[in-house]
Amino acid sequence: MPELISMHLRSLLFVPGDQPAKLARAPERGADALILDLEDSVAPAAKDKARREVAAFLKSLGAGPRRPYVVVRVNGLETGLADDDLNAVCQGKPDAIMLPKAMGGSSIIHLDAKLAVREAESNLNEDSIKVIALATEMAKAVFDASSYAGSSARLKGLAWGVEDLSVDIGGQVTRDHRGYFLGPYAFARNVCLLAAAAAKVQAIDTVMMDFRDLEAMRRECRDAWRDGFTGKLAIHPDQVAIINETFMPSSDDISHARAVIAAFEANPGAGTLSIDGRLYDAPHLARAKRTIALAGN
Predict the structure, then answer these.
(1) What is d(CA 39, CA 26) in angstroms, rounded to the nearest whole number?
(2) Tens digit of pLDDT for each residue in 112-132?
(3) Distance in angstroms (rounded) separating the CA atoms of residues 267 and 222
(4) Mean pLDDT of the region 279-292
(5) Is the same domain home to 244 and 146?
């Protein structure tokens, strides 16, 4: 199984990089990963402050088993701000960099080169800093999504974004009256999922901006898990528990997967098997093994 399955991140919580009080509380929120944000949640005039605060926070964490998985969202490569972001934070050994407005595999290759230089300068192991790309925030990027496959060993996950995409295409709203994504955004979601599968990295669902509607959040998490996403971005701590609960196999899922695996192990030469009146073959066995891996069993 790929690394993403055994070490998948269920919840990834955004934390504004220029707000030290929120940074200090972030490790207590229960998220699998913290995304320390230097991009959209930070005003232009506060970029330098955010870099300093994030660098200090990374230094304060140290090492050890209680350290959270830490991602830093830098500004996009096209802004001219990314180099200053990387210079400020790479010495603090973030686990990953989140690249916004990524434009396919070429963006990852570009970022890979920048990270390699900074790893060498900071005496870090090669490829120790991974990359999570926001893969569908621009219209052109949607059509470049297939190029993520094979772009870099650093690539850990692909996530998708809505608001920047809506601005890029001139959309007025992103969801219908029931809260479901409208056509262009549902398409971008599906592209992200398929591109992540092709690249053999984790597929991470986008944020829900209405953090007060926890029932809608639960439904959206269930739909994403059903389709193949294995984690979700969060903008508020209240969303974390729902994400963590949903993006794990249930006890029934685990029991069923074990039964399928056991049946094939007991019949090693069989291409198909009947279990409780239903036929199972190689794809079902692969899905069962994935379920057990996601459960950490």
Answers:
(1) 18
(2) 999 999 999 999 999 999 999
(3) 34
(4) 86
(5) yes
Total tally of structural domains belonging to the chain: 2
Longest CA span, the chain: 66
Are 185 and 226 in the same domain?
A: yes
Q: What angle do CA 17, 169, 84 make, to 5 degrees?
A: 30
Sign of CA dihedral 231, 39, 21, 59: positive
List, in sequence order, every beta strand (DSSP E) within 175-262: 202-205, 231-234
Instruction: Please answer whether residues 291 and 253 qualify as being in contact, where contact means their C-beta atoms are separated by less than 8 angstroms.
Output: yes
Confidence of residue 203 (pLDDT cuts 50, 70, 90): very high
**Residues spanned by the domain of 88:** 3-248
* Residue given tokens 């692909």 in the structure block: 158
Tell me what the mean pLDDT of segment 176-188 comes to: 95
Supply the pLDDT for residue 12: 98
Q: Strands 155-159, 69-73: parallel, antiparallel or unpaired by DSSP?
A: unpaired
